[in-house]
């Protein structure tokens, strides 16, 4: 077990304060909260337990900075964001260290997150100069109509702990590119990496007040409520649970602000008899076990057709048995701890419930107290059926439940039998099957013959109770802009002689 305190090449990236109007400040209330390493339980540092008053100061700063930032050309904003992207990559090692330290994920996953986060800054630095409008033919020959896109204004961004800088960058990139200013509320369980990229934003030339960051743990609901009810904030972007998303949507109703909600998932992962088995196994590992199963697009229900079921289970069990669970700073570690004890308890509850109703543990299934209270064995469950909790609830842990199915119609019906619809996965070598099933699945995203679904160039988001709006891509820019119609009347019509 690694217990030494990690060091940074640039210690100034480690900062435990709020960032408001270009200044690093304590909370008005003077209180702080502790941040601990989920792998060791050791103290990392403290951050401000911000109050509504702190959030108000951040909103005021963003509102004051908005006119000047929106007035810059897209090319000017893009150059600043591009420099930010470069600085994130230049400081990849230190940021990855912070992510592993406060989040627990294996070093290789943390380094991957830094590159992933930077890709959004790169993408939107290029999109900033490509905010187009339209010229619309008017029904009256003496009238002209044009449509322009404008930034919505001050935005409140609320990010989760599982991808503390990637989710921030996926929101900050389009918001700043569009000309908006922002208040970023980072998750209290992983605030230091978010502060680090704010340091780099300042170095890149993001003007004071354009980006503001507030931290909190216990006061998170109060700050979220304030942001939703603020008339100054014109858009909320939130990544988190469906339960909290509903609350934020309700709290935003009075101010009629825009909402982007990337909420819970229960992703089906479908493997047909004709699938490339090795490809399906690699996809399962990438989708199910990345970050120890703590992603919203994790394969939560793995449906394998009868003819390949036994071979699939045997092969996946062999691969999972090679995983090395441990502290993220250990070079041999492939999978780190869960974020806290409550997450472990939920995973154990799902495993116990499945076993109680007839499932069998092929590998894993237990806590790992010798490593610490937040570790759980990578687990495969077989003989799983739809009665079990794991079929209807998002596990958010390293448990792969393998369901058996017989026909295409059957698996489509079972896959769609969920209140959420974020991601889905499909493995087959038959183009007809791929076309039919991908179109029939009720999900915002379908990955075909791969376990990787997110990219800066592709829209990310779900349907049903998985949320509203899209992030990433040119579509993700739309949520940070509003349309303005401009009508010009009394245009003198000149009749030109035909040449």
Draw up the topology in text:
Elements (H helix, E strand, L loop, with lengths): L17 E3 L2 E3 L6 E5 L6 E6 L3 H20 L2 H17 L1 H12 L3 H21 L6 E3 L7 E8 L2 E5 L7 H13 L2 E5 L6 H13 L6 E4 L5 H10 L3 E7 L2 H11 L5 E5 L4 E5 L5 H12 L10 E7 L3 H12 L20 H16 L3 E4 L15 E6 L4 H4 L6 E7 L2 H9 L3 E2 L1 E5 L3 H10 L4 E4 L14 E2 L2 E2 L4 H6 L2 E8 L11
Parallel strand pairs: 7-8, 7-10, 8-9, 10-11, 12-13, 12-18, 13-16, 15-16, 18-19
Antiparallel strand pairs: 1-2, 3-4, 5-6, 6-22, 11-21, 14-15, 17-20
What does this protein look like?
The chain has 15 helices and 22 strands. With 499 residues, it is of the alpha/beta class. The protein folds into 2 domains: 11-263 and 466-484, Aldehyde Dehydrogenase, Chain A, domain 1 (3-Layer(aba) Sandwich), CATH 3.40.605.10; 267-448, Aldehyde Dehydrogenase, Chain A, domain 2, CATH 3.40.309. A 7-stranded mixed beta sheet has the order 14-15-16-13-12-18-19, sandwiched between helices. A 6-stranded mixed beta sheet has the order 9-8-7-10-11-21, with helices on both faces. The chain has a 3-stranded antiparallel beta sheet with strand order 5-6-22, with no helix packed on it. Residues 24-486 form the Aldehyde dehydrogenase domain. The active site is at residue 262. Its EC number is 1.2.1.16. It catalyses: succinate semialdehyde + NADP(+) + H2O = succinate + NADPH + 2 H(+); succinate semialdehyde + NAD(+) + H2O = succinate + NADH + 2 H(+).
Tag the structure with descriptive keywords.
Aldehyde Dehydrogenase, Chain A, domain 2; 7-stranded mixed β-sheet; Aldehyde Dehydrogenase, Chain A, domain 1; globular; 6-stranded mixed β-sheet; 499 residues; 15 helices; 22 strands; 2 domains; alpha/beta
